[in-house]
Structure formats: structure tokens, C-alpha cells
Amino acid sequence: MAEGTSALLQFLVQDAKIPPLISIEKMKDMQKAGLVRWLKSPDEIAKSTLEEVQTIFQDPKQAKQVLNAAKRRTKKRASTGDDLSSPSKKRQKQKQGELSDQQSSSLEIEESLALPTTEASEQDLEKIVLFTNRAPLVLAFAVSLLKFTMPNQPLSSRLSLAQAVVSANSKSKAISLGIDTGKTAEDEGWGEGQPVATVMGREIRVMKRPDYKWKAPPGGSSTDKTEDVVITEPENDAEQALWGLDLEAWKKSSRTGGHMPIHTAQSARSYLLRSFDTAPSPKGDAEPKKKRSGARVMAEKEHNLGSLLSALDLLHQSWASHLEPEELDRRAWGWYVRVRPDVESGPAGWGGKGEVKIAEILALRRGF
């Protein structure tokens, strides 16, 4: 779907509170009616009369919702200075080296989501064995992979996109195992018309964040350190930050008017931080276990996550300069399969935990 129609869908669902499936059908009606100007920008609807809007939205209540929402949008844009909407004029207004309130907010968001790192050597990393289940390992793989396949995405977007992959895979797997019934929201057409991104070979529906100002670290660095980040205006669509849409939540919310929910970066980060324990020692059964405080357990899990992400970065970085991003993305799932925890087959293994050896991840690097 073109950028304009994607923006219109977002406007109808979020601003005008029109249920998603009805919004999609009405957009098709607009196209048939030749209302190209409406498809290009929701602001064009504000210039129309109620009678014109009712040619598409026959329900008088919905027609008023759409028209009023469009007028509110136009009024808001005018009150904030529409003449400053272009990047060049914003840059003229803003002093060099000075961050706007929105840019400062973006930087604060990324800082709050920082993931743990480690200074451990490769030799020390190779000794670490984690204990986890499969879903958070997919999440960690995707978060690291996206640094190299979609380097223009900030950490907040990478977390959201990665969680969208995990959720889509988990839903499909649950249905295939008979744990869940029915069709996935994706198979039922939820998210139709929204942009698509491919992560670890899986297509996911996304939503653009056109007002989020972000620039990847210079020089193609894979670091997440916020001091290396430059916040600027996105220069083109390819640099726009994205959210991963939560289609299952969208499907459930349709009964109450509908909205376009996303997988939040904060939830994905929290899931990562609590998911990677240290594998039990082979001697664990013979020795009494010392009770650990909650703080110590969380600190150990954070350290383990930092070690895992460092190993995954080393893996992806070793291939990134030799493969196109699409090929790197395609291979990532196979690498995950080779190191994922061994669990029972079928429903009995659902959510089961097992060992993940970081040495096996490092062995997948190019040249090893």
C-alpha cells in the first residue's frame, strides 16, 4: 500500500475510530469512486462536506466521526505552524547542534531501552551455557539481526519488530500443534494494506513512525550506545522508524471500536531481561543449592543476556560484509535452528526449556 493510503488507514482507525475491516472496505470504495485526493491525505477529507463524506460512509454517525476527526487534525496542524512542516524549514528554525523537544524525547526513549552489554572475551563467552525456552532466543536473534539488515531502525523499533516475529511464529506454532484453534489474525486478513517487513524470513505487518526522528550510528556501527546516536530528520521512507503491529490484539479490539495496537519495545525488552538463566551445573543434584536473592537472579540474567547479544552480534557482523541484507536475513533462521534448545516434540514441548551454548553460536561465524 502506498504511503498515503497507509496514513489514511491509520487515520480512520486511530483518529476517526472506524473499525479496521470497515476502514479497509471504505478505502476500496474511495478508490472505486475516484476520490484519489482522499487517499493521498486525510487532510483532504476536512475540505469536504458532510454529504460528500456520506457517499462513502453511509452510516451518519461514522460520516460525522470521519469528518470531525479530519477537521481536528487540520486544526491541530495549523495551530502548530504548518509552514514549519518541511525538514528544511525545521532545520532553519533550529540552531545547529540543538535538539528539539521531540528529538530529545526520542533520545531519552532509546536510552531507557538500552540492553546489557559485556566486556567478556570470546574465550570467556564460549564457556557460557544458558537455560531458556525457544521464544526469547528468537527474540534475541531478531533484535541483533536487525542491526545489520535494517540499520536505520532505532532500538525501540528493533525490539517491536522482533517481538512481532516471535508472536506471529508462536501463534502459528500453537495452531499447528492443536494448542490453539482457528486461524491467525494474519490469515484472516488483519493488517491487510499495511506495509510489510521481513525479519528472519517471516513477513510481518508494520506501521510507520513518520514523526520519530532518528539516525543510525555513523559508519555502519552496530553499537547500541546512545552517545553514538545522532537524532535527525529521516531523509526518506527507508529511514523511517517502524512499529511491529500486534495483529492478534487488533483482532480482539475490533469488537470495541478497534485501534491499531503495536508490540511495545518495553514489553519486548522486559521479556529479554527475564528469560536467560544459567544452565544448571552437572553437579547440581549432588550439591545443595544456595538460595539466591531476587536481585542477584535478575543481575545474572541481565549478564547472560548481554553475553548472548554480544555473541549474536559477532555472528551477524562476521557475515554482514559478505552477504546482502536479504540473504543475511534468510540465513538467520537456519542459524537459530542449529543452536535452539532441545525440547520434546509436539504439545509436550510447548514452552519447554533447554540449554543454549554460546560456543555453538560463535562457531557459526564466517571463517570458523
What features would you describe in this structure?
This protein is mainly alpha-helical and 368 residues long. It has 15 helices and 6 strands. It has helices spanning 3-15, 20-32, 36-40, 50-54, 60-79, 87-93, 101-112, 122-125, 134-149, 155-176, 247-253, 265-273, 294-320, 325-339, 358-362; strands at 129-133, 196-199, 202-209, 241-244, 277-278, 353-357. The strands form 2 sheets. The protein has a 3-stranded antiparallel sheet. A 3-stranded antiparallel sheet has the order 2-3-4. Helix 9 (134-149) crosses helix 13, helix 9 packs antiparallel against helix 14 and helix 10 packs across helix 12. The longest helix is centred in the C-terminal third of the chain and has 27 residues, at 294-320. The radius of gyration is 23 Å and the shape is elongated.
